[in-house]
Specification:
Number of strands of chain A: 11
CATH topology of one domain in chain A: Enolase-like, domain 1
Helix content of chain B: 10-25%
Keywords (chain A): Oxidoreductase
Protein name (chain A): Xanthine dehydrogenase family protein subunit M
Largest sheet of chain B: 7 strands, mixed
InterPro entries (chain A): CO_DH_flav_C, CO_DH_flav_C_dom_sf, Diverse_Substr_Oxidored, FAD-bd_PCMH, FAD-bd_PCMH-like_sf, FAD-bd_PCMH_sub1, FAD-bd_PCMH_sub2, Mopterin_DH_FAD-bd
CATH class of the largest domain in chain B: Alpha Beta
Radius of gyration of chain A: 19 Å
Strand content of chain B: 25-35%
Number of domains of chain B: 3
Number of strands of chain B: 28
CATH topology of the largest domain in chain B: Aldehyde Oxidoreductase, domain 4
Strand order of the largest sheet of chain A: 4-7-5-6
Largest sheet of chain A: 4 strands, antiparallel
Largest interface: A-B, 32 and 34 residues
Distance between the termini of chain B: 48 Å
Structural class of chain A: alpha+beta
Pfam families (chain A): CO_deh_flav_C, FAD_binding_5
Strand content of chain A: 15-25%
Organism (chain B): Actinoallomurus vinaceus
Order of helices and strands of chain A: EHEHEEHHHHHEEHEEEEEHHH
Oligomer: heterodimer
Structural class of chain B: alpha+beta
CATH superfamily of the largest domain in chain B: Aldehyde oxidase/xanthine dehydrogenase, molybdopterin binding domain
Number of helices of chain A: 11
Radius of gyration of chain B: 27 Å
């Protein structure tokens, strides 16, 4: 960890004014402090935003303040089940009590090479190479990767929000904009260091979830080596609108497998108009890993992804 | 059922662990470690680090602290740190920065630029298997053959039924909750060390040697240890470096390994491969056991696991053959880890027994009962006290083993495939020499002291219970004083030998203290017992009694104005060569495997075992539960992942080196039979530290097979192995 300046902002304008080159906003700190200890992030100035009025969950739970803690959102009675479950299956209770919603969406990859400054990582140090390609890549992504980076996006919440087509409100001194989360995240391509559409000095102030009444029928399934306190090897956020024995509308997104939260429109399209049966689910999940670029350590994720989607859809239907 | 005597201190934070010693003018050390696995350090640019704020010193192979050569390996390494520029493994200590604060030392360490002349390391156990060599010590083969049998292969060929399979297990790291701290403080030519260790005497020996000083000038204190599992037996680089730096700087220094460093600066459990062949008659009677075991070994030391050895001790067979080979790798030091050789050895043997049971169509528990041996299978010497059949019987009844469906994959619960498995638990027992001192004090309490260590095992509570029992006073009036090198030399914590070795010494020392107390009572002119024959005075219920006269020992000492009476006694090592000493038991478990995504979860567990006399069921239960939890990790999660190309450990933190969390562990039912093993000692206690883990991974693997029909022969059993 390198020496840094520290300021606690009291208002949003003050926070935005303080932001500059080499500064970082501090909310729960569960990613930032961790990576600062590892010398992966070396901000010169840390701006504590915890006093900012970015709290609150609207009564319909469709607007969530960026500083809401994961545990509070997970407990909210109106939040869609897929969001609540994705949050409840994340991290540990201690982390969920600290980590903010905005910070969750901006958390950095768990790639061990990104986290070790003595190894090559294009995301951390552009042009240095990607040690994961020839190294230990069991937990890495199979979808949306490039020759420059195969890191997995770690957030569970982002997968649920992408499935629901949620947006983030971004505020900077230049103004405010609403960006669909699916467009916010950038696949690595040749510039893996650019992870998202966030501009310098910009802050996420809230998450906006579209009204989607049938998304009450939704779930999040997370597959991992141990039962708790671990990132996904594969996960699926699913929501189904089933009426008259037919799937009218479907939302499916996957985690643990993509360089970014991975929406699966082809799976959704195949589900539409079909009965909610195992055969329909298996047929729909079959192309889920099309275009995957598996590595020696993570080739199993091709099968695991499809099975995870089917399992999620089956468990959702078992509830109804 | 006695609570831990130090439980309250530990949960309230009042127990002083080694790193908690905040001495005046304390400086902080931080290790620099290598980022290549093999080669030579060409240069280390320390200019920026030396000038960084608060930095007191930067030590490197080019500006070293003098340490003498180690002459005796203690499950660690023979090369003292920083004495040459050779790099033998990734993460080796190559420098020490000392600064006014921990943060300053750490940040300065990051400024050091190291240039290497790097060479390609040997870092793949699998690639090394074809060229596995004889071990550096010990015989490469042990064999017992029935009269007239020419070879083990002849015995296998003559068997009615055989199975043969190869089992592998990855490297593991101990990951005790307390990392490795050393605090060193000098007073003239005398050094005091606070350092986490399984034996303060081991530290004295190593520091005397490395720093070239008289053992009498070294005092090591370590009353509380936050877990060891074998990893705090060896003395690692930071300990002599910290002691030497404190001497050079003339102020106390503390160095604590980071979690990442606690994967490389310290040792790990070797990787292993075992090829097991079993021959049997159709009724299940074993006729041949063969196990060719291979262990990885660090190029930096000689420790390896003779992983096939358990086959010599577990099941009856007229023909047994085990072999030992090693694959030497450019990796951190290989060392002892909970049940060395037997945790992995039992995984292979217990899996093979299950495979044989399937092939024979015999219940796997029945197969084990059929081959239960009243004698040591390899020598014919009788066991001192073996009640394994009772463990099998009680376990089967309690667990509902008879309801097990032998057809794999036949039982489901929703999306989960459910299977039952079992395995034999076992671990050897021993009694070494130990000395303990008991001091009776005028306030009516007693202090029991010896160099033993309580790693969180409950050892100090055992000492208190045994002393209280003998003195006839409450446990709360005994103060166990462990982990002080100034005390009489008791057993280090290792090899499940603490209670079996130290327990009898506590009993003897308490008896000696009572005798000394009576002697004082009859000799001191001011004593009401003065002039009586010692034989007429009894010490019971904490009182000295003769006829109608009865005085608590504390009151007597007070009235005589004597602060205390003490005695030291030595319990000898076990000299019995006519018996084998070993504990036996049985694990039963239920495992669920998700039918879609393959992840295995343990859902039920029972262990029934006989470890001789159980001194304190509460802490003993904890020990077995801990062993089983570690066994679940061994079976399903724990794996040190080594990059073959670089020799770097790719998961050197607790986020990616997985140990079980609470959600992975079902309630664990533990039953002790409690038959004192009076041939081992008058106390009759064997040991329980390693017992719980042995057989646990085999039981899980066997349950996975029963659930899925898939035989996974490579640990850990992760979901991708069950997806196909």
């Amino acid at each position: 960890m390198r020496a840094f300046g520290f300021t606690a902002a009291r208002t949003l304008p003050e926070a935005l004014r303080l932001a500059g080159p080499g500064s970082a906003f501090l909310a729960g700190g569960t990613t930032l402090v961790d990576l600062m200890k590892l010398d992966v992030l070396t901000p010169g100035q840390v701006i504590d935003i915890n006093r900012l009025p970015l709290h609150g969950i609207s009564r319909d739970a469709l607007r969530i303040g960026a500083l809401e803690r994961m545990s509070d959102v997970a407990r909210h009675p109106r939040v869609y089940p897929v969001i609540a479950e994705a949050l409840a299956l994340s991290a540990s209770p201690q982390l969920r009590n600290m980590a903010s919603i905005g910070g969750n969406l901006l958390q950095r990859t768990r790639c061990g090479y990104f986290r070790d400054v003595h190894t090559a990582c294009n995301r951390r140090q552009p042009g240095s190479g990607c040690a994961a390609l020839t190294g230990d890549n069991r937990t890495h992504a199979i979808l949306g990767t490039s020759d420059a980076c195969v890191a997995t996006h770690p957030s569970d919440l982002a997968v649920a929000l992408v499935a629901l087509d949620a947006s983030v409100r971004l505020v900077s001194r230049a103004g405010e904009r609403l960006v669909r989360l699916a467009a916010f995240y950038r696949p690595p391509g040749d510039t893996p260091q650019v992870e998202n559409d966030l501009r310098p000095g910009e802050l996420i102030t809230e998450v906006v979830v579209p009204r989607l009444p049938w998304a009450r029928h939704s779930t999040y399934v997370k597959v991992r080596d141990r039962s708790s306190y671990e990132f996904a090897l594969a996960s699926a956020a699913v929501a189904l609108d089933v009426r008259g024995g037919v799937i009218r509308e479907a939302r499916v997104a996957a985690g643990g497998v993509g360089a970014v939260p991975w929406r699966l429109p082809a799976v959704e399209a195949t589900l539409r108009g079909k009965p909610p049966t195992r055969a329909s689910f298996e047929a729909a999940a079959a192309p889920a890993a099309d275009g995957a670029r598996p590595l020696p350590g993570n080739a199993f994720k091709v099968t695991l992804l499809k099975r995870t989607i089917v399992r999620a859809l089956m468990s959702l239907e078992a509830r109804s | 059922m006695t609570d831990r005597v130090d439980g309250r201190l530990k949960v309230t934070g009042a127990a002083t662990y080694a790193a908690d010693n905040r001495l005046d003018r304390l400086a902080y050390g931080y290790l620099v470690t290598s980022t290549v696995a093999r080669g030579t350090i060409v240069s280390m640019d320390t200019a920026a680090a030396s000038k960084a704020p608060g930095v007191l010193a930067v030590y490197t192979p080019f500006e070293p602290l003098k340490l003498y050569r180690y002459t005796k390996e203690q499950n660690d390494e023979l090369t003292p740190p920083l004495q040459d520029a050779n790099v033998r493994y990734f993460g080796q200590a190559i420098g020490l920065v000392v600064a006014e604060t921990f943060e300053q030392a750490r940040d300065a360490a990051a400024l050091i630029q190291v240039r290497y002349d790097a060479k390609t390391p040997a870092a793949s156990f699998r690639d090394g298997l074809p060229s596995a060599a004889d071990p550096p010590s010990g015989s490469p083969v042990s064999e017992v053959l029935a009269p007239g049998v020419g070879s083990i292969d002849d015995a296998l060929n003559a068997s009615e039924v055989t199975i043969s399979a190869t089992y592998t297990a990855s490297m593991q790291n101990h990951n005790a909750m307390e990392p490795h701290p050393t605090v060193a403080a000098w007073d003239g030519d005398h050094v005091t060390l606070y350092t986490a260790t399984q034996g303060v005497i081991l530290v004295v020996d190593r520091i005397a040697e490395a720093l070239g000083i008289d053992k009498a000038k070294i005092h090591v204190r370590n009353p509380y240890v936050g877990g060891g599992f074998g990893n705090k037996w060896g003395i690692w680089a930071h300990t002599p470096l910290t002691a030497a730096a404190a001497r050079a700087l003339g102020r106390p220094v503390k160095t604590v390994l980071t979690r990442e460093q606690a994967f490389t600066v310290v040792g790990h459990r070797p990787a292993s491969q075992q090829t097991v062949s079993l021959g049997a008659r159709k009724d299940g009677t074993l006729t041949a056991i063969k196990n060719d075991g291979v262990s990885s070994k660090s190029a930096s030391n000689s420790f390896y696991e003779p992983v096939a050895n358990l086959c010599l001790s577990l099941y009856a067979s007229p023909n047994i053959h085990v072999s030992r080979k090693v694959v030497t790798l450019d990796v951190p030091v290989t060392t002892i880890m909970r049940a060395p050789q037997e945790a992995n050895g039992s995984f292979a043997l217990e899996s093979a027994m299950d495979e044989l049971a399937v092939k024979l169509g015999i219940d796997p528990l029945e197969l084990r009962r059929k081959n239960d041996s009243p004698v040591v299978p390899s020598s014919g010497v009788p066991w001192s006290s073996k009640h394994l059949d009772e463990c099998y019987r009680i376990g089967a009844e309690r667990f509902g083993w008879s309801r097990r469906n032998p057809t794999p994959g036949a039982v489901t619960d929703g999306d989960w495939l459910v299977g039952l498995g079992m395995a034999t638990a076992t671990y050897g027992a021993s009694r070494a020499q130990a000395s303990v001192k008991v001091r009776l004090l005028a306030n009516g309490t007693a202090v029991v002291s010896g160099t033993g260590a309580d790693l969180g095992t409950g050892q100090s509570t055992v000492w208190a219970i045994l002393a209280a029992e003998s003195l006839g006073i409450p446990v709360a009036r005994i103060r166990p004083d462990l982990g002080d090198s100034a005390s009489p030399v008791a057993a280090n914590a290792g090899g499940s030998g603490s209670t079996s070795t130290n327990g009898p010494a506590v009993q003897l020392a308490t008896d000696a203290a009572k005798t000394a107390m009576i002697a004082l009572a009859v000799q001191d002119e001011r004593s009401p017992f003065h002039g009586m024959a010692a034989g007429d005075v009894r010490f019971e219920d904490g009182r000295l009694t003769a006829g109608n006269l009865s005085v608590p020992f504390g009151s007597l000492l007070t009235s005589l104005d004597v602060p205390g009476v003490e005695a030291t006694a030595t319990s000898p090592k076990n000299g019995d060569k006519t018996h084998g000493f070993r504990s036996f038991g049985a694990h039963f478990c239920e495992v669920r495997v998700n039918a879609w995504t393959g992840e295995p979860r343990v859902s039920r567990w029972l262990t029934v075992l006989d470890a001789g006399r159980i001194v304190n069921e509460k802490t003993a239960h904890n020990q077995i539960v801990g062993g089983v939890v570690m066994g679940i990790g061994h079976a399903l999660l724990e794996e040190t992942r080594l990059e073959p190309a670089t020799g770097r450990i790719s998961n050197a933190d607790l986020a990616s080196y997985l140990v079980p969390v609470n959600a992975d562990v079902p309630p664990i039912d533990v039953r002790f039979l409690d038959y004192p093993d009076t041939l081992l000692s008058p106390l009759g206690a064997r040991g329980i530290g390693e017992f719980g883990i042995v057989g646990a991974a085999g039981a899980v693997a066997n349950a996975v097979h029963n659930a899925t029909g898939k035989r996974i022969r490579d640990l850990p059993i992760t979901l991708e192995k069950l997806l196909t």
